[in-house]
Amino acid sequence: MGLFDSLFRSSEILGIAEETLEFALESSEETHPNEYMGFLRGTEAARLDLDRDGLVITDILVVPGTETNSVSATVKTNQIPNDVMALGSIHSHPNGVISPSNADLDTFGRGSVHVIIGAPYRRTDWKAFDSQGKPTQLNVLDVDLPETEDFFDFTQADIDEELRR
Ligand SMILES: [Zn+2]
Predict the structure, then answer these.
(1) In whole angstroms, what is the distance from residue 165 CA to residue 61 CA?
(2) Please, which residues have CB less than 5 A from ligand 1, an ion?
(3) Average confidence score pLDDT of the chain
(4) Catalytic residue among 35, 44, 147, 161
(5) Å from CA of 11 to ligand 1 middle
(6) pLDDT in tens, 122-163
(7) Catalytic annotation on 35?
(8) CA 142 to ligand 1 center in whole angstroms
(9) Which residue has the higher pLDDT, 9 or 156?
(10) pTM greater than the 0.85 cutoff
């Protein structure tokens, strides 16, 4: 276990950035009828102008090599970098059932918060679970993500607009 890993484990998770949640909901919809699967990474709250100690979930790392079908997503554990397991996971259930499967429970021990998103992927179609698979509270925080995230907001229309000036 690296230094980063232990650092993250000891930090409180304050919530998930609203933009990150919306991104995951959209990605789940795009991936349908296959499962969307990723790992949750955090940013220190102080870096997001929050006057608190702790971490805010701001990034989702989609692991290459995830084998997906409409029933389950299986991740080869040797493809997961050490530091990303610290916060937890996020995945979709195309069948709309927002509760952990037995296979999910087997993997939830790694990480402290696990989000399941269910079809039809509306704003309320998700729940967070702890490492035991019990429902847990995960706040949605309206924070400005660091600069690099703005990349996602760019559309071709924006670029065209920029070129016309
Ligand atoms: Zn599942």
Answers:
(1) 36
(2) 101, 104
(3) 81
(4) 35
(5) 26
(6) 999 999 999 999 999 999 999 988 765 444 455 666 667 767
(7) yes
(8) 27
(9) 156
(10) no
CA distance linking residue 139 with residue 45, whole number of Å: 13
- Tell me how far apart the alpha carbons of residues 27 and 38 are, in angstroms, rounded to a whole number: 10
- What are the angstrom distances between the C-alpha of 99 and each of 35, 78, 104, 108, 133? 14, 26, 9, 12, 8
Domain boundaries, the chain: 3-164
Average pLDDT over residues 74-78: 55
3-164: CATH topology is Cytidine Deaminase; domain 2 (3.40.140)
In terms of pLDDT, which residue wins out, 69 or 146?
Answer: 146
Ligand 1 centroid–CA 147 distance in Å is 32
Contacting residues for 124 by C-beta, under 8 A, at least 6 apart: none
